[in-house]
Amino acid sequence: MLSLHSVSGDPLGDDRAHWPRRQARERLPANDHSSTYCFPLQILPRTTPTIAFLGITVLESVVDIVIVGLLLNSFEDGFVQSVLKRDVKSVLPVYLGLFVLAHVFQLVLAIDALSAKNTIQIMGLCIFNTLFLTYACIQIVEIKSLITDNTLSVLVWFIPGMIALTELVYFCTLLPIYREFGWTVYKRIGADRAIKKMFMWYQVFICIIKFDIFLFIAFSLQLVLLVLRQSAAERWLTVAALPISLFLLGLGYASVRYEHRLLWWSFIVGALAGAAYFVWKLFRIYEFRSTDYKLIYKSLTVFAAFCLAALIWTCTTAYICYHRFGRGLKQAMARSAGTADDKLENGRYMLESANNSRMSMD
Length: 362
Fold this sequence. Notes:
Largest sheet: none
Number of strands: 0
């Protein structure tokens, strides 16, 4: 029998030699040009809704941070000296510093959400900005009596105005971004509804972890800077709590991302210990509300409650993700993040399969 390999005029012969490269090209999204841009350009948005979302976030951060900077500069003793005194005058600079930290955190999360195409994080930023608006209004009411400069007393109202404008743009761009990112997720994960649902819960978990980081940092800074008296053991526990918490959150991310059960159980044990710590802190704050914690009793109570609630919600979503280990999400995400070499290997595999089929025809 004449072999197909011996036919010099085989019209498929030249084409088959390029199958691996064709397969690699076909597996890439048709409009994916990210490989042609350097890293800074890859994270920049390129559609109108995403540009508007990031643009208003940058504008809000710049305007509000400049105004807060002018307020901090108006203190007679300076920012650092006011904080180190640990008296009534120390509270306002710390709160304003946390306000600046929140803006920087929001901007970083906005860039991260747009580059990662994380719809859940976009929704989380809408909620975060709403809470931000409430916090800004409360702070302005509290500090307006301390502002003696007429210009600053007017400028300070630009802060909630800017946040409200940002919230309006957020809600206007939410649906278009949802549709855009939904198509991107479809290309990355596929049409399997079970995989898409698992990926959604994975995104929820990752989003909560990021907001946990901000809450834990804000809570720890208030404890360290504004609590009047602490025992040596309690102060060391306060200082150690933040890096331990950040390590546990990183452990939780790794356990869910790579579906590692031992790491997951280690994270859960640490998270339960963290929840017990926040419950203990709530009791301590209430017990010494008129002495050691009198400067920040209300604020610290709110932050401790938020930290506890966020940690419980983190454990809940981690539990949901845990029960979906081994069902294909890890492999789907690995395929979507595969390198060109991985795609080339897939092409070689398909070429070998085609060759085997051709040999069986011979």
